[in-house]
Amino acid sequence: METSEARRIEATNAERHQMSGQYGWEFSPDAPNMLERWTVLPFSQRGDKRLAFGALSGAYQGLRFSVFDYHRRPTVTSVHTRWTNKKVNELEEITIDSVWVITLPAPMPNFQIASSIESAWDVEQYPEPATADRKFNRWYKLIDTDPNVAVQVLTPQVAAAMRSLKLHNWSLVGSELVYTEHPIFGRTKPEDVLATLGKLAQLVPQLPFHLGGGQPQQPVAPQYPQAPPPQHPPPQYPPPQYPQQPYPPHQPGYPQQYPPPPHYGYPPQQPGYPPQYPPQGYPPPGPYGPPQGYPPRGY
């Protein structure tokens, strides 16, 4: 490896190591397990001398993430002399991309979009999206993506977020969003790492998670076993019978109620009405009337 490339990797690792202590993130100077984990851009591009370095992982604004730099050599040019046809020297080209991986709250269908003017990648042969915004379609290419799925992922909200946040090269792989950026000046500084994480935290809530199986999963309440039903139903008994009380019981604070006295054949006197007497011609029984058992007067 050339001295300039070694110095660039060393400087990036030093900055990322300092960030890990500042934000409580995990740091690794080398991450070979990241090289074969995804088959999307930039890992699908040709090249050898592949390296993953300056790896950080942790949480930022409620999102789990990983970020690292990806090093590869896409081309090697040999220079020959014109007369002897012998190789004089080799000119190799090194490309470094910064990769952010965000863990999504729910799985999504496979999707991959890239800028149509990205000079570091060979994407000219791929089709454009087919959204209602023709100007938006001309800016991008779909990489190994079903156009019907792309139309559903690229909602107006997602497209607007891509334009305003300038997030052009990203993929959906299961429950992960893989975003790639080609640094113009060769290195992604700590402030660039934080700025891109903040942009991705704004893009993720706009994604239509219902396409991949619903909304973010909620914890399921524990299920407890229920007691089995009894083998024999309990016997049914008639409700208890109580003797009816002709008069209500005495309540504290109210006068005691007694049964009305007998009226000897006459209706009881009602309050507010004059007393009722026997009709004329029938003297009341007693010492002044005919004895009991005799016919009434007039017979």
Sum up the structure in keywords.
six-stranded antiparallel sheet; globular; 6 strands; 299 residues; alpha+beta; 5 helices
* Biggest sheet architecture: 6 strands, antiparallel
Distance between the termini: 152 Å
Strand content: 25-35%
| Overall morphology | globular
SSE succession:
HEEEEHEHHEH
Number of helices: 5
- Pick out the low-confidence regions: 216-227
Mean pLDDT: 80
- Rg calc: 48 Å
Total count of strands = 6
Classification by helices and strands: alpha+beta
Instruction: Determine the fraction of residues in helical runs and give it as a percent range.
Output: 10-25%
Please characterize this protein's 3D structure:
This protein is α+β, with helices and mostly antiparallel strands and 299 residues long. Helices cover 19% and strands 27% of the residues. Strands 1, 2, 3, 4, 5 and 6 form a six-stranded antiparallel sheet that branches. The longest helix has 21 residues, at 3-23.
List the helices and strands and how they pair.
Blueprint: H1 3-23, E1 26-30, E2 48-60, E3 63-80, E4 87-115, H2 134-138, E5 140-142, H3 147-153, H4 156-165, E6 170-181, H5 190-203
Outline of this structure?
The chain is an alpha+beta fold and about 300 residues long. About 20% of the residues lie in helices and about 25% in strands. The chain is built from five helices and six strands; from the N terminus they run H-E-E-E-E-H-E-H-H-E-H.
